[in-house]
Design goal:
This protein is an alpha/beta fold and 191 residues long. The chain has 3 helices and 10 strands. Bound molecules: inosinic acid and magnesium ion.
């Protein structure tokens, strides 16, 4: 597909659409039906991982009928801008207890799995009734630790993507589509 410059692009950067906004929305509606069915109409507590998952969570929650609540958690990982180092740190905790609740952890992308492994460990200690995971994107080739998501929007190849919440140096989150980011204009990928 065509590479385009975007208003958020710095010199040398270009983006190429991978998943269009309409495809994303259709997939989220299907995931919501699956989630609603699996939780059998019981209340579901969604936990969004700041900041990238905000967009996915906002669209997903509006497709879920019934009693749904939400909270947010934030983590940071040290490392280069396009690669996490594996050292994860909690930077914002939840506002409310998850003990005995049906929890759905909502994340933008499952990459090495380090972030998800850390989050699952700390949330599981708080004894939720169920703890399930929804990710918009999954890059299985990149996995370093054995974690999987219960609900996956799209499995994508090992390329660095931006848009629909995903950033590169805090830019590009506002794009409607998910796009592959290239740096340097010589076909060099960001990751
Ligand atoms: P993990 O701990 O390596 O699985 O990394 C997960 C986090 O890295 C995600 O929550 C994203 O913030 C970030 N990340 C991983 N891959 C990408 C990507 O392709 N684009 C933007 N952010 C990414
Ligand atoms: Mg993230």
């Amino acid at each position: 597909m065509k590479k385009t410059k975007n208003a958020a692009s710095k010199p040398g950067e270009s983006v190429r659409v991978l998943l269009t906004r309409s495809r994303i929305q259709r997939r989220i509606a299907a995931l919501a039906r699956e989630i609603h069915r699996d939780f059998r109409g019981e209340p579901v507590h969604l936990i969004g991982v700041l900041k990238g998952a905000v967009f996915f969570l906002a669209d997903l929650i509006r497709c879920l009928p019934g009693e749904v609540s939400l909270d947010f958690i934030a983590v940071s990982s040290y490392g280069k801008e396009t690669q996490s180092s594996g050292q994860v740190m909690l930077t914002k905790d939840l506002d409310s207890s998850i003990e005995g609740r049906n929890v759905l952890l909502v994340e933008d992308i499952l990459d090495t799995g380090q972030t998800m492994q850390y989050l699952l460990r700390i949330l599981d200690q708080r004894r939720p009734k169920h703890l399930r995971v929804a990710v918009l994107l999954d890059k299985p080739e990149r996995r370093q630790v054995p974690v999987t998501a219960d609900y996956v929007g799209f499995r994508i190849p090992n390329e660095f993507v931006v848009g629909y919440g995903l950033d590169y140096a805090e830019r590009y989150r506002n794009l409607h589509d998910v796009s592959v980011l290239s740096l340097g204009g010589k076909g060099k990928s960001a990751d």
